Structure formats: structure tokens, C-alpha cells
From TrEMBL, chains A, B:
Residue ranges annotated for the Oxo-4-hydroxy-4-carboxy-5-ureidoimidazoline decarboxylase domain, each copy included: 7-162
Chief site of localization: other
NCBIfam families in alphabetical order: UHCUDC
Signal peptide positions on this chain: none
Compartments, record wording: Peroxisome
GO cellular component, one term: peroxisome
EC number: 4.1.1.97
Gene Ontology MF, one: 2-oxo-4-hydroxy-4-carboxy-5-ureidoimidazoline decarboxylase activity
Originating gene: urad
Protein name listed in UniProt: 2-oxo-4-hydroxy-4-carboxy-5-ureidoimidazoline decarboxylase
Family designation: Belongs to the OHCU decarboxylase family.
Length: 174, 174
């Protein structure tokens, strides 16, 4: 889909295609539709990031809390969004050994207990070993730093989903 | 559920129960969890309203765009959220006569074309005749006024969903 096609989408089409570039936050996609036309895909990405950055800290935490645990209950139950399922599977998180799975579950709980939001990482830019290492390390951070770090990861996930949709899948969803 | 029970919910439980008090905007529920403890239900409602009011105008439009059309495609296809389905059904919008249905469809399109967001009204505080009359009348408003009016309706819907969950259904969802 080229940028001209994107710019003439109705808000319903736009949200239908791009509504989950930020996990379970279609409000963000729906909001930036107000900013069209976009000169290119980077401009759309920038509008999303700007919207996120303008949110109060509670709103940024709200975004993080809309994310599932990595290798968590939603993966086991099959209730992940399609995007998350694919991302977690590519990183090998759907095939953890029993000891690894227990360790991840324990660290996820520790992280959530400490910060009040889940560990968010761009799974597609990391492999399993790197994800497990960072989960362990980031549990030691300060809360404000970790909130900012989580939001950075949200933006990376968003970018990959956005480019993926525009460059490959979107025509099929139209 | 009393307020003390509400205040000790984890963010996951909180979002699971209250995530759709603003239609398809779990980020709002997830954000206000940061503001607990709440002295009472009004304080929770106020925190939600405050979050909404602090959004940029594009964000308020984003909330409206997350709402389905009244008596629209989602109702016909069975893809409404449970909350919307019940609200639309109570107002009789699931049993329109053919001429009424055509008129509503035409006015919904006219409204969306004019404003770039859907007509939002608290169906539980109106009957079918009143909804159809207001849909027709509100098509004539100015955009800014109509955006503000839509957000007022979002808050009424939110209040009724919130009180409904706390006073009746929530224990079953826990």
C-alpha cells in the first residue's frame, strides 16, 4: 500500500488495519487519523510516537499494562493477539523447556510486583537468550527508567508492525 | 464488590473487569489503576473522566472512533462488544423496521462523513425514538461541539457500565 492509498482510508478502514500497532490501544491509531495526510510512513510513525509521548505517565503505564506477559498465560491459553502470538513464536517463547518456563514465570511475577506493569520487549529484535537475560537484568532497574524503557520497546514493536502491514499484509486486510 | 476489594485488585484483574468501561479503550482503565486507592466509586469515575479530559482533541476523537455505529454493521454481524450489544438491544436498535434501519444507516454515514467520527449516544438513557431524533438533529451541529457532546455521552456510558459492574456483575468475573 502506498502512502496515497493510506491517506484516503476512512477511519474505520484505518483502525481496522492499523488498530493494533500499539497492542490493544486502537485509540492511538484512531487518534492519529486526525493528523493525515502523512507525507510518508515515517510521518505516521512520528505521529504515533508524539501521541504516546504527550500522554501523562499514568497513560504510558496504561499502554504497558495492555501488553501480555511474554511466554505467559495468554500464550498458553491461545488468547494472544495475532501480532503478539507471531512475535513470541518467532523468538522461540512458545517452546520453552520446563525449567526455562518456570524461570520466566517467576521473573515476570517479580517484575510486575516491582513495577506495576509487565515486562515489554520487542521480541522480534531479540532472541530467546537475550530476552531472558534482559528480563532478569531489567528487574533491577528503577521504576521511572523501566517505564521509559518499556515505552521505547513499545515504539520498536509499533514500527515493525506498521512497516510489516504496509509493506506486505495490508492489501489482504483491505 | 466494595471499594476496598476494588483497591487491592492487581492491574490484570482490574483491566479484566473494567477494561471496557470506555469502549475498546482498556488503556484508560489501565492508566487510572496508577491512581488507586480510590475513596469510592465516584473517585474512580472522576479519575477516568480526568484522563479523558486531559487528552488532546485528537485523542478524544480517537475514543469516539473506537465506538461502533448504532444499529450498524457490528450489530448485524454479531461483532459488537458484549456491553454494546446489550445496550443497543435494550434500546430496541436490534429490531428496527426496514425503513427505520435504512434511515439510521443513511444518517450514520452522513454523520461520519461530516465529522470523521461516529455518532455516540448513551443508549441506555434514551429510547429508540429519542436516539433516532438526536441522530438526525446532531448531524447539523458544528464539529467541535459534536466532539464535546460525543465525549459527554462516552462518560455517561462509562458511568453506567462502571456502576453496573461494581454493583452486580463483577464478583462473577473475578
Amino acid at each position: 500500500m502506498d502512502i496515497n492509498a493510506l491517506n484516503v482510508l476512512s477511519y474505520e478502514e484505518f483502525v481496522n488495519i492499523f488498530g493494533n500497532v500499539v497492542e490493544k490501544c486502537p485509540i492511538i491509531t484512531a487518534a492519529v487519523w486526525s493528523k493525515r495526510p502523512f507525507v510518508n510512513l515515517s510521518a505516521l510513525e512520528a505521529a504515533i510516537n508524539e501521541f504516546i509521548d504527550a500522554l501523562p505517565e499514568s497513560g504510558k503505564e496504561g499502554i504497558l499494562r495492555c501488553h501480555p506477559d511474554l511466554a505467559g498465560r495468554d500464550l498458553q491459553r491461545g488468547t494472544l493477539t495475532q501480532e503478539s502470538r507471531e512475535e513470541q513464536a518467532r523468538a522461540g517463547l512458545d517452546a520453552l523447556e520446563s525449567a526455562e518456563a518456570s524461570r520466566v514465570a517467576r521473573l515476570n511475577e517479580e517484575y510486575k510486583e516491582r513495577f506495576g506493569f509487565p515486562f515489554v520487549i520487542c521480541a522480534r529484535m531479540n532472541d530467546k537468550a537475550s530476552i531472558l537475560r534482559q528480563l532478569s537484568e531489567r528487574c533491577q532497574n528503577e521504576r521511572a527508567a523501566e517505564r521509559a524503557r518499556g515505552i521505547e520497546e513499545v515504539k520498536k514493536i509499533c514500527r515493525l508492525r506498521l512497516y510489516g502491514l504496509v509493506l506486505t499484509d495490508a492489501p489482504n486486510k483491505l
